[in-house]
Amino acid sequence: MAKHHIETTVNGDAVEFLCETEETLLDVLRDTLHLTGSKEGCASGDCGACSVTLDGRLVCACLVLGCEVGGRRIETIEGMAEGEALHPLQTKFLEHAALQCGICTPGFLVASRALLERNPNPSETEIRYWLAGNLCRCTGYDKIVTAVKDAAVVMRKG
Question: What is the pLDDT of residue 1?
Answer without folding.
Answer: 72
